[in-house]
Design a protein that fits this description.
The complex is a heterodimer of chains A (177) and B (463). Chain A has 177 residues and is of the alpha+beta class. Chain A folds into 2 domains: 98 residues, no CATH class; 66 residues, no CATH class. Chain A is built from 5 helices and 4 strands. The longest helix of chain A has 27 residues. The mean pLDDT of chain A is 88. In chain B, helix 1 crosses helix 5, helix 4 packs antiparallel against helix 14 and helix 7 crosses helix 8. Chain B has 463 residues and is an all-alpha fold. Chain B has one domain: Up-down Bundle (Formate dehydrogenase/DMSO reductase fold), CATH 1.20.1630.10. Chain B contains 15 helices and no strands. The chains are: A alpha+beta (177), B mainly alpha (463). At the A-B interface, helix 1, strand 2, helix 2, helix 3 and helix 4 of A face helix 1, helix 5, helix 7 and helix 15 of B.
């Protein structure tokens, strides 16, 4: 192996093997290891150390922003910018302003949820060192992977490789950076 | 080796009704991705594609002619100024509802039979809502000024009329379209990554690049999945009130007017029930050929079809309640115009449409009480077509029968559709089918990631 290393990658055939491997990595003091699965696995997010999931907060803020902005726009245009007196009815006719406010609240929240999720995940990121490994393409089909990255303070090539080999993987590969 | 160790063999599904036995992660992935990547669909796909493409040309040709000559090419005139365009709009947007209902509401209710039908139902929603959005724009008279509905600072120094249901409608449809698109796309991201990697495996560079760009570099990392699942659940929660609100606001287009037959408080729930009814009918219309032509009987099982049939039966009664409430309110109100409108529907010039609607929407679906009918694929397909047609007649009847004889007998008139009305209705159906054919060719019609999850759950014996 020449050149810098991104980390070590181990492949597993089942979800349970990946969950067990993630627990082992955690027990050995790895804090930044990565786990890859072809579908969402319950509990894996906590195992790899995801503590704060900010998606709900962003969604709430997006909804509030959308709703508030839409109500403000209607109020401003109907009360300040272009008031029309229709038989003395109130200019700020709030019940009629609710449908648009409601719709854009939903839209703002949905946009914040989707875009926020992608942004927090660092996506789009079209290239990643793992994509250079041919074996990794099964991560989106039927295989489960655990990656111990070299940036992790607990990483030490020989010891980390021994740990992965001890987990009964299908294979272990070095990932060039 | 001790017996407590988890099996090192990848799991295979057990038969759980909504998924047949013997499928693993690799085989479900390859089966569904294979439909897209195998390419050549044979002459039947091409025949359907070219036939519907001819219809698409008719649709856009009729639209171009409308731009040149104006809405006078339609059969609309005073007193019936709302004709096919509005009926088509309400019909299409209603069809769109089932997709969101299946994706969002059934997800929140943890209904597992949603898993293999949600993707194409969402595509159906998207196409139906997009087509629906075209009709009111065409109906505007000067369609090229449709953007005047958008609030933006302009040299005319004017704002939209916020108190008008037509402006609410614009916000409702636009939001619905965008949120449906987001929900669909977010659901697609992991599957696009699967297609990227499968295409790469087959050394098909162009497809790998295109799917790779669309997949945004998804690689299935655990932190990504955790945020993804949260976002998906939140989107489902956000889409759920939308399902109810969109057709409610569409119904307010009618209910806020004082025309007999429009001015009714039953309209919002009645429209939402009708939307689910027609939407589930369209889900069956699409699901049955889809499973037949692509051999998806293991994923879209008779359980799915029978469940959809039960929803049809339930919503049929809700729609029937709407019909009954309209009649009751008309007579209970003592308003002679409301009463006349109701009797006119029964025995007036549009009575054949009314009674056909009753036959299609209330009588024919009663066959679904029989288990044998719910499990008969040809019968379900026939019924779904009958209900689609019946629901279109309902939309037509609501729009036209109230307008053609309202308050002053001297102002009564008739609406007869012109050839352009028919061209745009049938052309829109062709456009819908054409888009769906493209969708099954280029995108996975069933969510691959969720099917893998279902394989694992069924293998673990979760009920």
């Amino acid at each position: 192996m020449s050149g810098p290393l991104y980390g070590l990658l181990a492949e597993f055939a089942t979800a349970d093997a990946l969950l067990a491997a993630a627990r082992a990595a955690r027990a050995h003091g790895y804090a930044q290891f990565e786990a890859y699965s072809p579908f969402a696995l319950e509990g894996l997010g906590e195992l790899v150390g995801l503590k704060h999931n900010h998606v709900p907060l962003l969604t709430l803020l997006g909804g509030i922003a959308g709703g508030a902005a839409t109500y403000f726009l209607q109020w401003y245009s109907a009360v300040i910018d272009y008031p029309i007196n229709v038989g003395g009815r109130p200019l700020n006719s709030w019940p009629a302003f609710l449908p648009a406010t409601f719709e854009i609240t939903i839209l703002g929240a949905a946009l914040a949820a989707a875009i926020g999720m992608l942004a927090l995940n660092g996506l789009p990121q079209l290239y990643h060192p793992l994509f250079a490994l041919e074996e990794f393409e099964l991560a989106t089909r039927n295989r489960f992977f655990l990656c111990l990255p070299a940036r992790d303070p607990a990483f030490e090539l020989a010891r980390s490789a021994a740990l992965l080999h001890g987990l009964d993987p299908l294979l272990v590969r070095e990932v060039p950076a | 080796m001790s017996v407590e160790l988890p099996s090192s063999e990848p799991p295979l599904s057990k038969d759980v009704g909504v998924l047949r036995a013997g499928w693993g992660y690799a085989s479900v992935s390859d089966k569904i991705a294979g439909i897209v990547l195998a390419g050549g669909f044979g002459w039947r796909w091409w025949a359907a594609f070219l036939f519907t493409f001819a219809g698409v040309l008719v649709f856009f040709g009729a639209m171009a002619w409308l731009f040149v000559r104006g809405v006078g090419i339609w059969g609309v005139n005073v007193p019936v100024a709302w004709g096919f365009a509005i009926a088509n709009f309400v019909w299409w947007i209603g069809i769109g509802h089932a997709g969101t209902f299946i994706s969002a509401v059934l997800l929140l209710l943890r209904q597992r039979w949603r898993t293999s039908i949600n993707r194409f139902a969402e595509a159906m929603t998207l196409f139906a809502a997009a087509i629906a959005g075209i009709f009111p724009i065409l109906h505007l008279g000067r369609p090229w000024f449709f953007y005047w509905l958008v609030p933006y600072p302009n040299v005319m120094n004017l704002w939209p009329q916020w108190r008008s249901p037509l402006v609410w409608d614009f916000f409702a449809i636009a939001t619905y379209l965008l949120v449906s698109l987001l929900f669909w796309y977010v659901g697609l991201i992991p599957d696009l990554a699967t297609l990227r990697d499968r295409a790469g495996h087959q050394r098909r560079r162009a497809r790998q690049v295109v799917y790779g760009l669309l997949a945004l570099g998804w690689r299935g990392e655990a932190r990504h999945w955790a945020r993804y699942e949260t976002a998906y659940l939140l989107l489902a929660g956000l889409a759920t009130p939308l399902v109810v609100s969109v057709h409610t606001i569409v119904s307010l287009d009618f209910a806020i007017g004082n025309t007999p037959g429009y001015h009714s408080t039953i309209f919002p729930p009645y429209f939402v029930a009708g939307a689910l009814f027609s939407g589930f009918a369209m889900v069956l219309t699409l699901a049955i050929p889809l499973r037949h032509f692509f051999g998806l009987h293991a994923f879209i099982t008779e359980r799915h079809l029978a469940n959809a049939a039960k929803v049809l039966l339930a919503t049929c009664w809700l729609v029937g309640y709407g019909y009954a409430a309209e009649i009751f309110t008309a007579f209970y109100s003592g308003d002679q115009f409301e009463r006349y409108m109701t009797v006119n529907r029964w025995i007036g010039p549009y009575a054949p449409v009314y009674w056909s609607m009753i036959a299609c929407n209330l009588l024919a679906p009663q066959l679904l009480w029989w288990r044998r009918v719910r499990h008969s694929v040809p019968m379900l397909f026939m019924l779904s077509l009958v209900i689609n047609i019946g629901m279109w007649m309902e939309r037509f009847l609501i729009v036209v029968s109230s307008l053609h004889r309202d308050f002053l007998p001297s102002a009564w008139g008739m609406f007869y559709p012109s050839v352009w009305d028919w061209a745009q209705l049938l052309g829109s159906v062709a456009l819908f089918v054409w888009l769906f054919l493209l969708f099954v060719r280029y995108l996975p019609a069933i969510s691959i990631a969720e099917m893998r999850e279902l394989v694992r759950e069924s293998a673990q014996g979760k009920p």
